[in-house]
Every structure is written in structure tokens, then in C-alpha cells.
Prior knowledge:
The structure is a homotetramer of 288-residue chains.
Chain A: E1 5-7, E2 10-11, H1 13-26, E3 31-33, H2 45-59, E4 65-68, H3 74-87, E5 91-94, H4 104-117, E6 122-126, H5 128-131, H6 137-143, E7 149-154, H7 159-168, E8 176-179, H8 185-190, E9 195-196, H9 205-216, H10 220-236, H11 246-257, H12 274-286
Parallel strand pairs in A: 3-4, 4-5, 5-6, 6-7, 7-8, 8-9
Antiparallel strand pairs in A: 1-2
Helix pairs in contact in A: 1-2, 1-9, 2-3, 4-6, 6-7, 9-10, 11-12
Amino acid sequence: MVTPxxxxxxxxxxxxxxxxxxLIQGGVHGIFILGTTGEGTSLSYLLRKELxxxxxxxxxxRFPIMVGITDTAPEExxxxxxxxAAAGASAVxxxxxxxxxxxxxxxxxxxxxxxxxxxxxLFLYNMPSHTKINIAPETVKxxxxxxxxxxxxxxxxxxxxxxxxxxxxxxNPSFTLMVGPEEMMASxxxxxxxxxxxxxxxxxxxxxxxxxxxxxxRDIELVLVLQEKxxxxxxxxxSAGVSGSxxxxxxxxxxxLLGICNDFIASPLVNFEAKEKEVxxxxxxxxx
Amino acid sequence: MVTPxxxxxxxxxxxxxxxxxxLIQGGVHGIFILGTTGEGTSLSYLLRKELxxxxxxxxxxRFPIMVGITDTAPEExxxxxxxxAAAGASAVxxxxxxxxxxxxxxxxxxxxxxxxxxxxxLFLYNMPSHTKINIAPETVKxxxxxxxxxxxxxxxxxxxxxxxxxxxxxxNPSFTLMVGPEEMMASxxxxxxxxxxxxxxxxxxxxxxxxxxxxxxRDIELVLVLQEKxxxxxxxxxSAGVSGSxxxxxxxxxxxLLGICNDFIASPLVNFEAKEKEVxxxxxxxxx
Amino acid sequence: MVTPxxxxxxxxxxxxxxxxxxLIQGGVHGIFILGTTGEGTSLSYLLRKELxxxxxxxxxxRFPIMVGITDTAPEExxxxxxxxAAAGASAVxxxxxxxxxxxxxxxxxxxxxxxxxxxxxLFLYNMPSHTKINIAPETVKxxxxxxxxxxxxxxxxxxxxxxxxxxxxxxNPSFTLMVGPEEMMASxxxxxxxxxxxxxxxxxxxxxxxxxxxxxxRDIELVLVLQEKxxxxxxxxxSAGVSGSxxxxxxxxxxxLLGICNDFIASPLVNFEAKEKEVxxxxxxxxx
Amino acid sequence: MVTPxxxxxxxxxxxxxxxxxxLIQGGVHGIFILGTTGEGTSLSYLLRKELxxxxxxxxxxRFPIMVGITDTAPEExxxxxxxxAAAGASAVxxxxxxxxxxxxxxxxxxxxxxxxxxxxxLFLYNMPSHTKINIAPETVKxxxxxxxxxxxxxxxxxxxxxxxxxxxxxxNPSFTLMVGPEEMMASxxxxxxxxxxxxxxxxxxxxxxxxxxxxxxRDIELVLVLQEKxxxxxxxxxSAGVSGSxxxxxxxxxxxLLGICNDFIASPLVNFEAKEKEVxxxxxxxxx
Lengths: 288, 288, 288, 288
């Protein structure tokens, strides 16, 4: 879930409520807040806490909420988990600490000790493009033995990696394996993956739920039809700009054009310029 | 196809013949020589020419032969293509030049001009881990307009990339899209890809052909069974060593243990040490 | 300056006081706390604030204190600067935000807006190995026009980069250019650089001050003698372990062996194991 | 030395002769052909042999000639060395093979075995931006024991790396350490390095020889004056374009404007466009 913002210090509360209702009506099975798409690392702790409280309050028990706690300081991750637990969230999600380079052994120790101290179950988050480190399949396998670690969200885009993890943890059916990139959700589900955590679902939740269902049902014909729509979104919305953050800029601009929430992007990233907004508007109109 | 060698200057001709017959009996639809698995860039030009001639002679017209011409010097790629054409090969395959960094525009110009001069059709080869550059989907799309460029082998492992290319060139049904990593062949075929160029087929061609057929037939149950075998091979054969070239070392050692060809690896890479060979032998015995 | 710790939540206050007095007696011209060597990003905000307050109190006006505010959330950098200003620090230091990838234009906007809002002068901090982005010489040049930005600490190790920045900002004599790596402090001063922010000065402040003075005086003979000692430290202390954090592990272990402060390293990094400590102890004894 | 070309298959022989005389009159102590600046990896073997023969013939015994033999196929490196030895070259230079990733142990074995087989002394060439691998200081140290390996050209730009190698091999005074980037030649000589292999010397050999002499004489005042000129060239000639090969494009365009040789750049790289040539022409006129 994106974080609707008015400026660097202020949530777009009306937009947040509209977005949550949009997602619920769209049939999604849960939400992940304060992830990469949620700009978690860009927000002050005060704002992160406010978002957790408000979201939990607005959602109630209508679906589970997962909260991103990725941080370079483990103590802050623990504090945020305490906030999330008090607010009623279901679980937390942590990518590796991303300032210092780490070995797989250091990474294992980090996650194991962190999971020991958290009052909520922990979901691993592989995001090498942003964290500079890949959680090796062997490390995922070893961490899956921890009673408080129950899954992995893989946003590497690497299908060989995902297949390796899937193969390694197949003896542990309670460990959940999801992918970030929506472009590969269907193919990974067909091969045994458990789902997707897809940014595009902010805009079109029904489409992604339908694609998920088609893949689970192994209805390849339908998968191909829906996959085309997903790829159209990927190329028309996420690639409308030239910056490395074109994905987030496109997504937030589209949400604003769709009347769902404000398009402000937290510093250090910046919004689309006027010209890019025009491109996006035109691209959005072309989506079937 | 691997290149069976006795030493840095000498082909293992008996092994080469045995390997080719093994592949033909295994039902593969064609072979790719002098690729990454074939150690093309490590061999002298004399040896590359010898391999092309011998292979074409041994295969005859039993299946098509594609020849790797990846080089930093375009003139050498052109000369090798002339050799391949004279010997009766069907097509050539080129990864980007890999010494100088290049922009997508420079890459486009390179491939376009190269294709103009080649006496055989050209297959693009995306291999960013070795060449330092990704052939962007937009560049593939633009190059697909060249009458002498007819396909792409993608060895990036990146499923988002592959889906993007697939989506972009769907209006050109004669452009062929294949993947290198066998771990993702089935999932890409299910989503519309056209096949795999898989190193493991050197050892067990029937398995990979069966997986291909199951994916084409959309028989997901069978795909899952065969995919497990493929993943077992990936983890037991390719990950038996600690070096970055463990894949090639494992593959060649296994081929030697299976009695197909010699396991010599051309310099600058080196063979498994005795201890690693023991691990591999034991792993190979565990394969079902 | 390293951050002396008893555990993840507790400062080693006695060690901190001993270290500060050691540095003052060693003749250093100022200190930089909460940098990379200070494990700033690994510490909770509570601990960072405590360290700022305590250090400012212990130092008084004996030398200037610079405080690291590197963060992915600009709001937290601003809050920490407010704490630093209230405690009496002289300036703050910020490396680029390091979660999202950024363009040079985004980076320029980030720094410019940040400097606008800070109650203390800002020192740029180039640390591409940890932040994934290089502050381009052109960006440094453009930022040097901001009245609240007064210098750059370059820890890239790249002498071509440093020379380029030096050349570009030579028309602005009030802009200060320092290097992080002590191995290149002398050579950069000889060519016009202004100093070093060297981790080794925690152990042997007099040596690094002497090297600085020799370079400023252009006494090459003395520079060569002292440079040898600095390189001995680099190879015997910082390379005693095998991990990527061997530098920090070696430095903190040496400080502990020298009786200055505790050697605890904050999670996510870990301390040397017993065997590595023995190597370091032996190496330390060999230093002249 | 750049390679003067008329097109991908033809040397600019008149330009080559003019360039060689220009370098001799400029006082350089030797030349390095077929390096990165010489586009060695882009040229056909036929052309490389022709260049070696012609250069050796034109130079005679007026200064030593070093020949780049960097290749992914060791056999080709050996063959080229035989050509160089027959033509009268003094030594050869090899960067690591750059297609397959390698470990330091594999790299050591590669160089050791290569040096065993070469009929000329071997100079190591560290060029991690192009080869994807750094020759670790420990590996240089180990290789310096080979009787046929006598030096290192470091083009990493990394001053910490260079200082580490310098420190490690100081017990072997016959091992020669030079840097590629001219921006750091003076500072490395001041600290004990032995010289530079500088692309800019193609244009202005006297300037770089003067800078070398000033650094050897420890005349810092003069070094600073000349270093400014070198940095002006770096920023006005090498950064006139936007491509990653702007350095080579700028250098060859300037040589053409100076009337020394043709500016053709071998494929896969491309020449400056007209607009960039105008920028360069104007920049060149501004050089003092």
C-alpha cells in the first residue's frame, strides 16, 4: 500500500480512508504498509506510528495488516513492532539492514536475534536492489526454522532465486513465499509460490485478485489475458518517467488521477514534473 | 553444449561425438555451441573453428546448430560467422561486447551494424552478469525490426525483464524468445516464452525435453514433478563447489562421471579439486 | 570517533570519557561522531541523542564537534540536528539517503532543501560503497553555492574523484575538502586537500596529527616515514578479519586492547570471534 | 597510445607515424599500445599484429614498447606475445580475463601460468571498471614473486588500493608500480609510485613528462601548477560528451583537431556527434 501524503509531515487521511475502502472492495487478502512502495524509510517515526494507528483503526478486523519495520537500527525496528502490535497489526516485514555490507552469516544472526525480540511474527523481505544484499536461499532455509519467522517476500525479480528458495523450503509447508513484482506473480504461483504483494493493486485491486485466482486455478488462458493487462500497466504507468523512481511516481500520479489519494512523494524522492504527468494521463487513458 | 576438451589446445573429439549422439537421442531440438557453457570466450580462434567444423560434420542435418560469436572485436565475430556459414550452421548468437561500458544507443548501433554484415541470422544474447550490460526491452524491440535478427536468449534470470520483452514483441510472432536458466524455462513457456537453452540438457536431455513438452501442453502437474528434478540438479550439481564457476565445474565433472566426455575446463577457469569431485560424485548418486 | 558501547542500548560512558581525553591529548582538531566508524545508523535515536549530549558536555569548548545525521528520512535528520544544535555541536554531516536509488538532480534537491532547514552548517559526506550513489563533482560544485553547506568529506577512496572536486571548487576557498581514508590523507593534502577524518586517530591521534602536519609542511621525507606507520596499521589492524566489517571490528578490538574503551559492536554487525582477536592482539604487538 | 584508425579494418598509418614522432619529441619514456585507450580489445587480431609490427618498426630502439595482450582466451594472449617479441617489443601488459567472474585464487593461477608461457616480461594491469575484478593487493604481492612478472599498472583510481600495493611490495624494489589515471600520477609518485601511463600524453606529452619530473623532484609548487593544467584537460576534453566513452571520444577528437591523427573510433564504440565535436573544439581552445 502506498502512503497517501499531503507533505513530508502530514498524512492524507481522507485519501488513506478512500484507498483502504478501495482495496477492501477490490478483494485483496491483506495489506502491507510501510514497505518500499509505502515509502517507509522516507517517513519520520512519528508519521510511521500515525499511519500504523490510523490504518489499523480504519481496517479493523476486515483483513490482516503487515507493517514494514526495515531499518538500519534494530532497536527502532523493535520499537515500531511494539507500536504495530498495540495497534492490532498481524505481522511485521523486514528487509536486511542496508547501510553496512554484511555477510550471510551476519545476516542470519541479525534476523534470528531480531525475531527473538519481536512481539509479532516476522516476514523476511528480499530487496537486493535497495539493500545491496541478497538473502541467500540457504539463509532463508536456516531462518525458516525460527518459530517466529513465517515467510519471505521476494522483490529481487530473479526467477532462479525464487525457484531455489521454493525448492529448499518445500519441506516446510507453513512457510509462505510471495513475490513483489506483479509481472511475475502468476508464473511463480503456477510453479508453487503463494502469492504476490503488488503495488499495482493500489490502483486496480480486482485485476490482481483475478490474476491470483486464475493462477491458483491453473486457468492459463485467463492468466494470459490478465497478464497482458498487468504488463500494460507496468509499461504505461511505471515507465512513464525517466527517473529511477518512475515506478513510484507513476503509481502515485495514477492514484491521484483516479481520484483515490494525493500524489505527494516524500523527500528524498520527488514528484513527476508537469510534462511527465501529461504523459501518464494520456497513458492511463489508453489502458483497456 | 559444453566443449569437451583434453587441454587448452585440444578438443576431446571422442567425447564430442558421444555428447552429440547423447543429445540427439535425448530429443533436443537444436544445439548452441561456443556459448557461456561452451566456454567460447576462453578458447583460441583456431579451436573455435575446429569445434564448429567438427560439430557440423558430426551433426549433419539432424538438427540446427547455433554458434556463439560473442566478442569484443566485431571483426572477429564476422570472421567466425563466415566459418560457421561455410560449415553449415543455421545461425549465430552474440552477447554484447563486454570490455567497454556502452549505452543502449551504442548497443543498438552495434547490433544493427553487425547484423547487416553477417552471412547468417543473428540471435541476441542477454547475459548481464558477464557482460555488465542489460539489453533493454526497448532495444530488443527496436532490433527486432532488423530482417536478420530473429530472437533473444535471455540469461539474466530476471522474470520481470523477460515478461517485459515478451509483452513488447508480441506483435512480432516470428521473433523467438528463449531463456538460459533451466530453473525458469517452464514458467516462461507457460506465460508465452518459446523455449530454453539449458546447460543441464548436456547431462539429461530427455528430462529437459519432457519439461519443455509438459509446459507447452500446460500440464502443470507434470511440470511440477519435472521441475523438482531440475531443481535437484541445480542444487546438487551446480552448487557443489564454492567458486563462481561452480556451475560449469559441476556440469563438466558430472558429464565425466556419466561417461560422456572429459571434464577439463579451459583456462582462465579451473577444474574442481579432488574434495569437490567427491561431493559431486555423492550428490550425483542421490539424484533420482 | 567510534561509539563506545556496552551493549545495543547502553553507552560505555567511562570509555567515552577516556576516548575523548585521549583524542584531546593527541592533538586532533575536532571530532566527528555518529559517522560510519561511529556506527550512527545502527543506533537507536535515543542512544544517538544521549551520545550527542554526553560528548558535547565532556568536550566543552575544547574543540569543535561534528555530528552525523545520515538518514533515509529527512525529518529525522532535521530533528537530530536540532538536538545537536541545542547541545552545542558545531556542524552536521550527512551522506546521501541510501534506500532508494536517486539521480544527481534528486540528490541536489535533497541536499539543498535539507540545508535550508538545518539550524547548523552542513558538511556533505560522499560514501558510495555504503550509499550506492556518488555525489558527482558537478553536484558538489552546485551545492557549494548554498550558504549553509561548507564542505565535503569524501570516503570514496577515489583519487580521480577527489582531484576533480578539488579542481572544481578551487574558486571557493571557504569550502572545505577532507578525505575519510587515512591511507590517502597525506597525498590529498599535498595536492591541495584540507585534511582527514581518520578512524585510526581513535587509537593513535598523535600519529595522524603528525602526518597531517608533515603534509601541510610539505616535508615529504617525514610524510613517507609516517605513511609507512599508517599503512602498517591499515594492514595489521583493519585487515585482521575476513568479514566486510573487519575495519570496524579491528579498530574497536584494538581500542579495547589499548585500554581505551569497550569493544562491543552494535547489531547488525558483530564482534570479532576469539581467534580473530588473537590475530589482532599479535598484530597490534608488532606495530612499531 | 591511441590507435589511429581510418575505419574498423584500416590503420591511419600517416597519423600513427606523426603520433609516434610527437611522443618521442615530447620526451615520454616509453609507450603502451593496445591498452584500453588503444582500443586493443575492439580490434581484429590481424589489425593488432599490423599495429605491433608498424609501431616497432617506426620506433626502432628509441624507447621501449609495451603491448597489451588482454584477452579472455589465454592462447590468444600467448600468440600475440610471440608476435610482439618477434617485432622487438620490450614487454606485454595483461588485464584479467573479463568474461567469467573469477576468484583471487583463480586469478593468481591464471597469471602465474600465463607468465610461465610468455616469451616477454609481463606487466599486470588492474582495471576493475572494465574487467569486473580487482587484483587484490595480496594477489599482486604473490605474483611479484614470479621471475617474469615485473610490475603493475593500476587504473582503478583507488588511492587506498594503490597505497596498499605500494606498502606490500616495498621489499621488492624491482617491481614497478604505475597508475593509469593522470589525475593521480603526481600524488602517487610523491608517495613512492614509479610513474604514470597517461592517455593525455597522446596530446600533450611534454606536460605529463614535466609533471612526472616535478613530482620526482618533490617540487610541490610546480606540481600544483601542472596538476591544474592536467585537471583542465580532464574536465574540458574527457568530459565534453555524455557517453561512458566520452574520455576516448574526447581524446581522439582532440588529436584530430590538433592535426595529429584521424579520430575514428572502432566499433562497438562510436565517435562524437557534430554537436559534441563543437563543444570539444571550443573547450580545446580554452586550454591555456
